[in-house]
C-alpha cells in the first residue's frame, strides 16, 4: 500500500474529521497507487492519520474511509460500515419502516462517494468517487446482506463522476428490477423510476417538508412550482387543499405526476391542475391572469452547484421568490427552497428578504427547514449541508 504524505501544517482538517484531502495539501505519494486504491495518510512527520481512497484525477485527491490508520479496508470493513449505516436508520422513529429511504448518505455516513436509496424491494446505488467505484462489488454485496433487497440498480451517471475521471455507469447489478415501482410516503403512494427518474429516481430529502406542506395546506389554494412527479402536490391534496396548481417544464415528470394522482383514489383529482411550463414565465402569466394563492411552494433545481455560480443563482432565486410573493393572498405562506451547495442559509434568507421587500410584502419566517434525517450532515464536514428551506408568512 502506498503512503500519502501531507505537507507540513496540512493535517488539521483531517484531525477535525474532515474526510477530504485536497491536492494542495499533498506533499507526495510514496509507492504506487491506482485510482481508487487505499492509501495510508501520514502527516509531514510520518505519523499515520487515516486510510483513504486515492483519486489522482480529482482536486479532492483522497477521501478518508477511516480515521483509524490501523483499520484494514476490505470486504469485511464495507460489510460492517454499510450495516451500521442501515442500522442507524432503523433506530430512528421517523425513518424506521419508510419504504423510500436513503440508506447511505456519502461522507456523513463514513462512505465518501456512496449514495444508496431504498425504494421498497429495490436499492439504487450511486457511486461518485474513484474509491467508491473501485469497491462496487463489496458495496453491492453488503447492501444485499444488510437489507435483503430484491434488486440493486446502479445509477452512477451523475456529472460529478467526470471530476474523478470516471465514465457514467447505469444498470442492474443484482437481481431484477420490478417495474413499476412505488413507495408509500406520508400516506401517499408514489411511483419511482430508478432508470429514467431524476437522481436515483426521487427526491427523498424533502420527505418531512412534504409532510409539513400537507399540514399547512388545509383549505388553501396551493401553487407548487417545480413539482417533478407531484410529491408536494399530492401531500397538499391529502392535507385537504382546496385546489393545487402544479408546474414543471418536464412532460415525463408531469405524466408520472398524473399517474401518481390516479394511484391515490382517496384524493380528489378535480382539485388538481397540471401545467407544463417554464416557472419563470408561468409565475408572470399567473399574475397577469389575476390568479392568487394561499400557499406557494418553490423547489427549484440546483441553480448554483458551487460557490462560483452563486451570483447568477442569486438572481434566479430572487426572481422566483419575488414573483411567488406577489401571488400570495394576505396571510399566505411561501415555502421556498434552495438545494444549491453554493448558496448558504444566510445568503438564501437575504435573497428571500430582498424578494419580499421588492414585492412590497412584509414577511416573517415560521420555519427553517433542511433535509430529512436520513440525509445527515457530518459535524466534521458541514459543507455537506445543501438543502435549506424557509416557510414565510406574509401580511
Ligand atoms: N419538488 C420536487 C422536486 C423538484 S426537482 C419533489 O418534491 O419531488 C426540480 C424540478 O424542476 C424538476 O422536475 C425539473 O423538471 C423542474 N424544472 C427545472 N427547471 C425548470 C423551469 N425553468 N421551469 C419549470 N420546471 C423546471
Q: Keywords, please?
A:
395 residues, alpha/beta, Archaeosine Trna-guanine Transglycosylase, Chain: A, domain 4, Transcription Regulator spoIIAA, Rossmann fold, 3 domains, 7-stranded mixed sheet, 6-stranded mixed sheet, 10 helices, binds S-adenosyl-L-homocysteine
How would you sum up this structure, described in words?
The chain has 395 residues and is of the alpha/beta class. It starts with a strand and ends with a strand. Helix content is 28%, strand content 30%. The chain has 10 helices and 20 strands. The strands form 4 sheets. The chain has a 7-stranded mixed beta sheet, with helices on both faces. It has a 6-stranded mixed beta sheet with strand order 2-6-5-4-1-3. A 5-stranded mixed beta sheet has the order 7-8-9-10-11. The chain folds into 3 domains: 3-66, Archaeosine Trna-guanine Transglycosylase, Chain: A, domain 4 (Roll), CATH 2.30.130.10; 75-181, Transcription Regulator spoIIAA, CATH 3.30.750; 203-394, Vaccinia Virus protein VP39 (Rossmann fold, 3-Layer(aba) Sandwich), CATH 3.40.50.150. The chain has helices at residues 12-15, 75-90, 130-134, 136-147, 207-216, 231-238, 251-262, 279-288, 310-326, 345-359; strands at residues 3-6, 20-22, 26-30, 38-42, 48-54, 60-66, 100-105, 114-119, 122-127, 151-156, 169-174, 181-185, 188-192, 221-225, 243-248, 272-276, 293-298, 328-338, 363-370, 388-394. The model has no long low-confidence stretch (mean pLDDT 97). The structure holds S-adenosyl-L-homocysteine. S-adenosyl-L-homocysteine is lined by residues 203, 206, 226-229, 231-232, 247-250, 253, 278-280, 299-301. Residues 203, 206, 226-229, 231-232, 247-250, 253, 278-280, 299-301 line the site of S-adenosyl-L-homocysteine.
Amino acid at each position: 500500500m502506498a503512503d500519502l504524505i501531507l505537507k507540513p501544517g496540512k493535517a488539521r482538517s483531517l484531525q477535525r474529521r474532515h474526510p477530504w484531502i485536497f491536492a494542495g495539501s499533498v506533499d507526495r505519494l510514496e509507492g504506487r497507487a491506482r485510482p481508487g486504491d487505499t492509501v495510508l495518510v501520514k502527516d509531514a512527520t510520518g505519523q499515520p492519520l487515516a486510510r483513504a481512497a486515492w483519486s489522482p484525477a480529482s482536486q479532492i485527491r483522497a477521501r478518508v474511509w477511516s480515521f483509524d490508520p490501523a483499520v484494514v479496508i476490505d470486504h469485511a470493513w464495507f460489510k460492517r460500515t454499510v450495516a451500521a449505516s442501515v442500522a442507524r436508520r432503523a433506530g430512528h422513529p421517523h425513518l424506521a419502516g419508510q419504504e423510500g429511504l436513503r440508506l447511505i448518505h456519502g461522507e456523513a455516513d463514513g462512505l465518501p462517494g456512496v449514495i444508496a436509496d431504498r425504494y421498497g424491494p429495490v436499492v439504487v446505488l450511486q457511486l461518485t468517487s474513484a474509491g467508491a467505484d473501485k469497491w462496487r462489488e463489496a458495496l453491492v454485496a453488503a447492501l444485499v446482506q444488510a437489507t435483503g433487497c430484491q434488486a440493486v440498480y446502479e445509477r452512477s451517471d451523475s456529472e460529478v463522476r467526470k471530476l474523478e475521471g470516471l465514465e457514467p455507469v447505469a444498470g442492474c447489478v443484482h437481481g431484477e428490477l420490478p417495474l413499476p415501482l412505488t413507495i408509500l410516503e406520508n400516506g401517499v403512494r408514489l411511483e419511482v423510476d430508478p432508470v429514467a427518474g431524476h437522481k436515483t429516481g426521487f427526491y427523498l430529502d424533502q420527505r418531512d417538508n412534504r409532510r409539513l406542506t400537507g399540514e399547512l395546506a388545509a383549505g388553501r389554494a396551493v401553487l407548487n412550482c417545480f413539482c417533478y412527479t407531484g410529491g408536494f402536490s399530492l401531500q397538499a391534496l391529502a392535507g385537504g387543499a382546496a385546489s393545487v396548481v402544479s408546474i414543471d417544464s418536464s412532460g415525463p415528470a408531469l405524466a408520472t405526476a398524473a399517474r401518481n394522482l390516479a394511484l391515490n383514489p382517496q384524493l380528489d383529482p378535480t382539485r388538481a391542475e397540471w401545467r407544463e411550463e417554464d416557472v419563470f414565465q408561468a409565475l408572470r402569466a399567473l399574475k397577469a391572469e389575476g390568479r392568487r394563492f394561499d400557499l406557494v411552494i418553490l423547489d427549484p433545481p440546483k441553480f448554483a452547484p458551487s460557490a462560483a455560480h452563486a451570483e447568477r443563482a442569486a438572481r434566479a432565486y430572487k426572481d422566483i421568490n419575488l414573483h411567488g410573493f406577489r401571488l400570495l393572498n394576505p396571510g399566505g405562506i411561501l415555502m421556498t427552497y434552495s438545494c444549491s451547495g453554493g448558496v448558504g442559509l444566510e445568503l438564501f434568507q437575504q435573497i428571500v428578504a430582498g424578494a419580499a421587500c421588492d414585492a412590497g410584502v412584509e414577511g416573517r419566517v415560521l420555519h427553517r427547514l433542511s433535509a430529512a434525517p436520513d440525509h445527515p450532515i457530518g459535524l466534521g464536514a458541514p459543507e455537506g449541508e445543501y438543502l435549506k428551506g424557509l416557510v414565510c408568512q406574509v401580511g
